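2024-03-11 09:14:02 DEBUG pipeline.ingest accepted 1 chain
2024-03-11 09:14:02 DEBUG pipeline.ingest length=207
2024-03-11 09:14:03 DEBUG pipeline.predict start
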Amino acid sequence: MQKQLLKVFGVGGHSKVVIDTAKKAGFLIELLFDDNPIVANIFLYGIKVLYPIDNSVCGNGIIAIGDNTIRKKISLKLDNIYWEKIIHPSTVIADDVEIGEGTVIMAGCVIQPGSRIGKHCIINTGSCIDHDCVIGDFSHIAPNSSIAGGVFIDEGTFIGIGSSIIQNIKIGAWCKVGAGSVVICNLESNCTAVGVPAKKIKYHDEQ
């Protein structure tokens, strides 16, 4: 069976995992793009990196950038790309889970029934999302995070590596939860929370 061609936007460290995941999911990497002049014309996996990101390019693509804000900006300026969903074959995903365009789900993730994953999200290596959760667009769930049932995470929020969130918690938009934190109460939008249990330490500018 012929493999689906895929254009990849971003060639940092995160892109290596996205590219490997895409290959294992049956895609063939066609072109690589990046806005960093330092990586212009280098070769990654035998493919030349094109600089800058061409806003007129069309076809099937994925954004391989870990930063939620940058991922959103790129998705909004590329009008002619059909954003694929990239799902590693080792994942365990319930039949009724909804997954938005441009989302990447890495190796070893588990997503349980009734959950909804937004567009251009990253569900990173080994994360567990239990039943009836909502993960907003452009969010990033870092490796080995555990999210209990009924949790709502709004747009653009970053959940740090190894974090845990108890059931029925609501986390606002564009929050940052520090690595290894345990979230046991709701968090307002645009805040950073760290610790066990997680406590708000600052607010940052609205997205």
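2024-03-11 09:14:41 DEBUG pipeline.report The longest strand covers residues 27-33.
2024-03-11 09:14:41 DEBUG pipeline.predict end
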